[in-house]
Design brief:
Elements lengths: L3 H5 L5 E4 L1 H9 L3 E2 L4 E5 L7 E5 L5 E7 L7 E5 L8 H18 L5 E6 L8 E6 L2 E6 L2 H4 L2 H9 L6 E6 L3 H4 L5 E7 L4 E6 L2 E6 L13 H7 L8 E5 L5 H8 L3 E6 L1 H13 L6 E5 L2 H9 L5 E6 L11 H17 L1 E11 L6 H15 L1 E9 L19 E9 L1
Parallel strand pairs: 1-4, 9-10, 14-15, 14-17, 15-16, 17-18
Antiparallel strand pairs: 1-3, 2-6, 4-5, 5-6, 7-8, 8-9, 10-11, 12-13, 18-20, 19-20
The chain binds S-adenosyl-L-homocysteine.
Length: 404
């Protein structure tokens, strides 16, 4: 390996990859694992720029290297001469924002930047009105945090950039855990509008970036199945997500979640003036839905949107049982021709695998189910096509449920 001195003289570290990995980078692969790399020439520090090269040392891409972690490299540009500097990040951020607004028609609150699909793996930015919430999972991108924040503050209406770099997964990458205001005004709460409803978003205290924007269009779509007098159950309701849309469409809603989430959901119900249509149940979803089975009340619409049961491939079996169980309970809680809106955000559960779990649960529950809508994350969460179904971690399936 070359000495660090060699780098100072301007020699760029090189990652030699085999032919199949070369082809995959050309197709769109942006995260390189150690198994893709045959040889590393040079001694890059975490976050340094390196070149991905073919077996003969010919340039394929520029990447950020993280030599002792997985992924070992994140491809950042396919152009040999492109300068990876503040202006590069600014161009990418502005392009991602313009696409959301001018082409997709988003405004106000949306995922403004989504990693690979927007050209910078390891960077996620959600916008909640004037506040941007940033998550970084790449040491190379970490070095440009301030430049990214400056670019965001240049976008019309954005006054604050918060970092939510408190995900434990950063430790594996050798990055510190941090959260707080990174640039701009010290403002961390916003009231956002989503379809017909409003949510109070606490960017520092909310989950992940502060709020689950990935389910946004699915929550709006759920309202189509609710009308005055419908009975709706929202299991894992968090800050009121699906249930608020149902209530705004006229349904009587029961929100079920743990204590802290319910406190926030209550505030959002009040914010929308929907107190008369919403009631709350604090408790554990598996136990409470099981208890409800022995009572007569049945629902027209049930939403079930649990946390990721499979965090690692090793969790898959246990996760499949949990998805089966909660969906079994929820199917049984529906009236005939009721609608089950069921989600899974585990990236290790494929869309096909999820449908299989649902079909098994239906069989077990004595129900016949058919798919009405098969949805994924909202359009502001684009997924590179080359990653196939593995890229769409969020599954949200709308089912018609009938007794057999
Ligand atoms: N549907 C929501 C997001 C749900 S996030 C939305 O659209 O915003 C998952 C929720 O599951 C969290 O609010 C968490 O508090 C809740 N949760 C996790 N485990 C739970 C359990 N065993 N019982 C009840 N709620 C649980």
């Amino acid at each position: 390996m070359d000495s660090p001195k060699a780098q100072q003289k301007g020699e760029i570290p090189k990652l030699f990859v085999a032919r199949d990995a070369e082809a995959r980078v050309r197709e769109g692969l942006r995260l390189l694992q150690k198994r893709h790399v045959r040889k590393l020439k040079g001694a890059p520090n975490a976050g340094d720029i390196a070149w991905v090269v073919d077996e003969n040392g010919k340039f394929i891409a520029q990447c950020f290297c993280n030599p002792s972690a997985e992924p070992i490299a994140q491809v950042i540009s396919l152009k040999e001469k492109e300068a990876i500097d503040a202006a590069f990040f600014s161009r990418k951020v502005i392009a991602a924002d313009s696409f959301r607004r001018a082409v997709l028609g988003f405004s106000g609150s949306y995922r403004l930047f989504y990693g690979e699909a927007d050209g910078i793996p390891g960077l996620v930015v959600d916008r909640f009105c004037g506040i941007c919430s940033m998550q970084v999972s790449c040491p190379g991108v970490e070095r440009f945090k301030d430049a990214i924040a400056a670019a965001l503050l240049g976008i019309d209406g954005i006054v604050t950039v918060v970092e939510r770099n408190d995900s434990r997964s950063r430790e594996r990458l050798g990055l510190p855990l941090k959260k707080g205001v990174l640039a701009g005004k010290s403002k961390t709460q916003a009231v956002i509008e989503e379809g017909a409803v409003k949510f109070e978003v606490d960017v520092l205290r909310g989950h992940k970036t502060g709020f689950y924007l990935d389910q946004s269009e699915n929550r709006v779509a759920a309202a189509k199945y609710c009308r005055a007098g419908s009975e709706m159950l929202d299991v894992f309701s968090y800050t009121g997500g699906f249930g608020l849309h149902a209530a705004a469409a006229g349904a009587n809603v029961l929100m079920l979640d743990m204590k802290d989430a319910i406190a926030q959901a209550r505030r959002n119900v009040k914010l929308n003036g929907l107190e008369s249509r919403v009631s709350f149940l604090e408790g554990k979803a598996f136990e409470e839905t099981k208890k409800m089975l022995s009572r007569p009340k049945r629902f027209d619409v049930v939403s079930v949107d649990p946390p990721a049961f499979a965090q690692r491939p090793a969790d898959l079996k246990r996760a499949a049982r949990a998805y089966h169980q909660i969906n079994y309970n929820c199917m049984k809680l529906l009236k005939d021709d009721g609608i089950l809106i069921t989600s899974s955000c585990s990236s290790y559960v494929s869309p096909e695998g999820f449908l299989k779990i649902l079909s098994d649960a239906a069989n077990h529950a004595g129900k016949e189910v058919s798919v009405i809508e098969q949805r994924s994350a909202s359009r502001d969460h684009p997924v590179p096509a080359h990653s196939g179904s593995a890229g769409s971690y969020l599954k949200c399936v709308f089912l018609r449920v009938r007794s057999k």
